[in-house]
Amino acid sequence: MPQKQKSKYNSNEHKNGSKKKNNDERKEGKQISKSVVSPVSKEKIKEFATLRGMKDILPREGKLFQQIYHAAEDIADAYGFSYIETPIVEQASLFIRSVGKGTDIVNKEMYLFEDNDSSKVCLRPEGTASVARAYTNHGMHTLPQPVKTWYWGPMFRHDRPQAGRYREFHQFSCESIGEHSPVVDAELISVAYNVLRDLGISTMVHVNSIGTPVDRENYLVELSGYLKSKRSYLSEESKKRMLKNPLRVLDSKEEQDASVIAEAPQIIDWLSDESKKFFMTVLEYLDEAKIPYVLTPTLVRGLDYYTDTVFELYEEGIDEQSQNALGGGGRYDGLVEQLGGQPTPGAGFSLGIERVVGVVQRKQEEERKKLRAEGKESEISDPEKTGGIFFAQLGEQARKRSLFLIEDLRRNGITVYHNLAKSSLKTQLELANKKGVSHTLILGQKEMQDGTVLVRNMESGIQEIIDQRKLKHMVEKLRNTP
Ligand code: HAM
Prior knowledge:
Elements: E1 3-5, H1 19-26, H2 30-36, H3 39-47, H4 59-78, E2 82-83, E3 89-91, H5 92-98, H6 104-107, E4 111-114, E5 120-123, H7 128-137, E6 147-156, E7 168-177, H8 182-198, E8 203-209, H9 213-229, H10 236-244, H11 258-263, H12 273-288, E9 293-295, E10 307-315, E11 327-331, H13 335-338, E12 346-352, H14 353-373, E13 389-393, H15 396-411, E14 416-418, H16 425-435, E15 439-443, H17 445-450, E16 452-457, E17 463-467, H18 471-480
Parallel strand pairs: 2-6, 8-9, 13-14, 13-15
Antiparallel strand pairs: 1-17, 3-5, 4-5, 6-7, 7-12, 8-10, 10-11, 11-12, 15-16, 16-17
The protein binds histidyl-adenosine monophosphate.
Histidyl-adenosine monophosphate binds at residues 126-128, 157, 159, 164-166, 169, 171, 173, 175, 325-330, 348-350, 352, 354-355.
């Protein structure tokens, strides 16, 4: 039987009461700037700061990134998508050809470089063109169609940084190449919607059809004529867009443009019968799957390769005009051929991970505030709380034994935090508190002699002595106790 003990290792300051201080200190950067950094090194830190619009993903946020990655991976796997990875650096012409010369992404936002051999390369601004290139390069048309792939990774756009808009950001994407069928579009929308739903984000899908290139050409004649007649009412940006890419005027968020856009001819009225039927069938699938959507006639997307169905995903109940899309996608039946392959249909979507992380963090904060207001502080889950245990050691002999015991526990599926480089118990218990573990195992000289370990409850400070041979069993029991 484990004995309860008031230990020689007792120290009240390590109870969870000291956690608040630790939590405050954990706020990124505070410790560095206040206590460690001299004026000289502050200058150095400035010199080596991240580039504008790019950021480090620190451990606290990193946990959320991982959670989202796993949620996305699980769903993509369940829907039969296989993982694909394409290079981050590609020939610039790949995106100029596919995303389009008249688009903001190619015109203003590409990270363009001259490679050592003077060829023009760029950091990828998106992944769809790369996957379409890979499909052709590797003869994937010989595989059973459609070829369904998913990927996750950084994208680069030299945009003006603002909330939810970075120069380096991450996307989770699915592409389905080789099948022209409304069910493919509905399946992709369903995957994107359900990833967000699984993360607790109530989502609204905005959907439209922009028809075939021929439909669009006819429509563009009509739209250009209309915009010219309203030129004097348009914002300066839209006046420029009107000449380069009139469709993009419909995307404008400028208040000044709102009434002109609302009155503009709608592309849906210019669709061929085939495109109309295709789109109606996509909507029927969405109805059947109970996926909430709104028809958005002004949704045209900012990339040239789209045909027929286009869609974007927004957090429900938030003013869509004022916020950024969490994701978007659509059909691109001409893309593979444009890149030198056989005529091959395709469709896909991407979610913007930083934006999804932002929503999840905001929701977690709202939940914490609500619990605090209701006096239910104890129900607030600490995102840093790891579920593992901490292993502290005292003395050379104990340190030598530690590695064996830690590895033994790890092999049994238990996460064991530790820092064997530290010899002070106080420091080790502080680390344990920072990790938010419920228990710390302490191995000192006496325990080494007796073949025991102290198990310290971090909340109450109470410690129990247990036999080292019963350690696994004991920790397993702790793990299963809520
Ligand atoms: P996109 O709409 O350009 O589409 O980007 C998809 C998502 O990436 C956006 O909805 C947004 O959440 C996120 N995103 C875009 N730009 C930024 C930025 N500067 N900062 C942070 N997040 C951003 C595509 O990229 C297409 N490749 C989607 C697709 C896949 N279409 C077919 N297959």
